[in-house]
Amino acid sequence: MKFQPDRIDAQSISGYGPGWIAVGSEKIESSVILGARGLRQPWGPRSFEELTPAHFTELAALDAEVMLMGCGERTRFVAPAWLAPLFAKRIGLETMDSFAACRTYNILAGEGRNVVVALIIAPPPSP
């Protein structure tokens, strides 16, 4: 019997670590929005504290079935009022730490779902 690894036809995250993620062989070291259908664009906040309501208006403009947000090193939640643009389009937002968001994104993308992940990628702490 021949065994072959599963192949994901969607854009996937191939690795991650403190202060970076990889998409294929490209290392990304700043906050980014990725979509299973090829979307890749910079995202403004460099930390959770820099988030504003405008960031969620930006996310609501994207065509997504499922929306994930990686908040950095730990799961945090934004003010519910900031999510109004997403709720108006009947898009829920699942928040989690950025590494969990990467794993969840890959699973959903591998299932063929139209998933978008917004990742806060903060610089790693200084030694």
From TrEMBL:
Highest taxon above the source species: Bacteria
Name listed for the protein in its UniProt record: Xcc1710-like domain-containing protein
Species assigned in the record: Simplicispira suum
